[in-house]
């Protein structure tokens, strides 16, 4: 894989973003380098050390943060009584701006994969003057057609059957009811099933590995909150409003066989935004950890350094 060597942050802290929330942030790389902000996936996926390795540490000043209620941000979605009322796309867009101001950065590159691509587009369209370039992977825009998992259902019927076992009525509503159940065993079983489905569709070869229960609960509860609310976006909004950012240099990296965020969305985005460089990765799925996808991502960050 073409990633840069592991690196540790030289700055980190907690930022009060209001509504009783604090987000964990960190900065690594060259303190005098080109600023970039990394937006993780999920929602609720949190940061991983490998995310720092997508950027040349000699060239970039890399800012990363855990989005609301996940990772090291507080309060955590698993804490008793925590509400996700103040966890929406627009709260997160505001958090990105607060972090930029806190770090004393005027403009920066924005990098986002999967849900991070959704958030990157929403941020850039809200604050186009603050974005120097965009690097987007596995495009997801929360359109109704993207939330039905139809290609994945057709290709992975065995996994889909396990995911939908025992569902009563609407799939997402049923899972939301399970996540709110007072019985911890019901919540955990639902989170495991939700996360197992995500693991299956996020890799070219379905991942059958072990599941961390804490991460599963975090991921499932926050992601389902966004799915049931359609990302707090109008239908087709992010592609409709692409005119606001067509002047921003951009690279779109998309696995040909991505089942989590199928290529049709990246294609629709590119048709609306022909200036963006669409890099279709043959023989790849959704995960940014697949070697061919990682090579394209590092090539994109190297191009803009």
From TrEMBL:
Give the Enzyme Commission number: 3.4.11.5
Q: Where, per UniProt, does this protein localize? A: Cytoplasm
- SUPFAM superfamilies, sorted: alpha/beta-Hydrolases
Q: Does the keyword Oxidoreductase apply?
A: no
* Enzyme class, UniProt record, top EC level: hydrolase
Question: In this protein, which residues make up the domain named AB hydrolase-1?
Answer: 34-287
Q: Which UniProt keywords apply?
A: Aminopeptidase, Cytoplasm, Hydrolase, Protease
Under catalytic activity, the entry for this protein gives:
Release of N-terminal proline from a peptide
Official protein name in the record: Proline iminopeptidase
Q: Which PANTHER family match?
A: PROLINE IMINOPEPTIDASE
Pfam families membership: Abhydrolase_1
What broad class describes the main subcellular location of this protein? cytoplasm
Which GO MF terms does the UniProt record name? aminopeptidase activity
* Family affiliation: Belongs to the peptidase S33 family.
User: Which InterPro entries does the UniProt record give?
Assistant: AB_hydrolase_1, AB_hydrolase_fold, Peptidase_S33, Pro_iminopeptidase
């Amino acid at each position: 894989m073409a990633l840069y060597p592991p690196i540790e942050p030289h700055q980190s802290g907690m930022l009060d973003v209001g509504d009783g929330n604090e987000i964990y942030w960190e900065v690594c790389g060259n303190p005098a380098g080109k600023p970039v902000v990394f937006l993780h996936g999920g929602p609720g996926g949190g940061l991983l050390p490998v995310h720092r390795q997508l950027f040349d540490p000699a060239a970039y000043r890399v800012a990363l943060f855990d989005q609301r209620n996940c990772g090291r941000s507080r309060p955590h979605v698993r804490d008793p009584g925590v509400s996700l009322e103040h966890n929406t796309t627009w709260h997160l867009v505001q958090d990105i701006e607060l972090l930029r101001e806190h770090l004393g950065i005027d403009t920066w590159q924005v990098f986002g994969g999967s849900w991070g691509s959704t958030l990157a587009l929403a941020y850039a369209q809200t604050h186009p003057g603050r974005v120097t370039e965009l690097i987007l992977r596995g495009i997801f825009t929360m359109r109704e057609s993207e939330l039905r998992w139809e290609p994945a259902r057709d290709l992975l019927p065995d996994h889909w059957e396990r995911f939908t076992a025992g569902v009563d009525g609407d799939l997402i509503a049923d899972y939301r009811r399970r996540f709110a159940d007072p019985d911890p065993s019901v919540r955990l079983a639902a989170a495991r099933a939700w996360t197992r489905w995500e693991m299956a569709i996020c890799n070219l070869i379905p991942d059958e590995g072990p599941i961390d229960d804490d991460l599963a609960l975090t991921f499932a509860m926050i992601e389902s909150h966004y799915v049931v609310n359609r990302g707090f976006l109008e239908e087709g909004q992010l592609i409709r409003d692409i005119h606001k950012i067509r002047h921003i240099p951009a690279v779109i990296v998309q696995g040909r066989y991505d089942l989590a965020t199928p290529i049709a969305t990246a294609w629709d985005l590119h048709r609306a935004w022909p200036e963006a460089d669409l890099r279709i990765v043959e023989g790849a799925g959704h995960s940014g950890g697949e070697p061919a996808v990682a090579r394209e991502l590092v090539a994109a960050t190297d191009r803009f350094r």
